[in-house]
Design the sequence.
């Protein structure tokens, strides 16, 4: 049975945040809120936890995970960011955007897309997620919580998530009912940005 925390969406309780971080550090898989619905997350270096997420989602081999970061200071550790990309990311974070960047050697090869060696990175506009990240001190390896058979619908009701996943994950954080707001995905590996998927927000290039 998973643990189930009721966390205030605007003023997250530090005690619960710290407990959630400890579950992550012990190899747990958690369900946590973001600004685009609920997500599954684990530590970057934990292959067992990552494989468990793949099993829950029934993901195909090579599925792209995302590094969810607290701020832009972590970008250079895991990705190559030129001036154009940095300005674009800075002007659209935090928010519902995922940026595809060329990965650095610091990132485990199993997290990169097989051919291009890229990684998705984003900074969410959700206080619970941001507090988790700040307490953890590093990004959370994540993917949207879309259950098998519902590949285009991100789970947004924590009570329903509990009914379906309480025996499959270590923690579910109840951060309120979240609307389904998919991220806009932007490829920044070329000379000019390419919108791979249009989500719920407009892009602010440099202003």
Sequence:
């Amino acid at each position: 049975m998973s643990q189930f925390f009721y966390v205030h969406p605007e003023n997250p309780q530090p005690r619960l945040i710290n407990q959630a971080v400890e579950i992550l550090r012990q190899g747990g898989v958690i369900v946590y809120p973001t600004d685009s619905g609920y997500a599954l997350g684990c530590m970057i270096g934990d292959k067992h936890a990552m494989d468990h997420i793949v099993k829950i989602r029934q993901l195909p081999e090579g599925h792209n995970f995302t590094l969810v970061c607290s701020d832009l200071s972590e970008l250079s550790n895991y990705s190559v960011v030129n001036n154009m990309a940095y300005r674009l990311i800075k002007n659209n974070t935090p928010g519902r955007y995922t940026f595809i960047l060329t990965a650095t050697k610091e990132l485990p090869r199993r997290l990169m897309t097989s051919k291009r060696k890229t990684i998705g990175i984003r900074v969410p506009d959700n206080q619970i997620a941001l507090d988790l990240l700040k307490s953890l001190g590093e990004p959370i390896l994540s993917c949207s919580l879309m259950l098998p058979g519902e590949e285009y619908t991100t789970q947004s009701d924590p009570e329903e998530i509990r009914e379906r996943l309480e025996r499959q994950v270590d923690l579910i954080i109840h951060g309120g009912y979240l609307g389904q707001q998919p991220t806009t995905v932007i490829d920044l590996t070329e000379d000019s940005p390419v919108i791979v998927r249009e989500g719920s927000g407009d892009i602010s290039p440099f202003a």
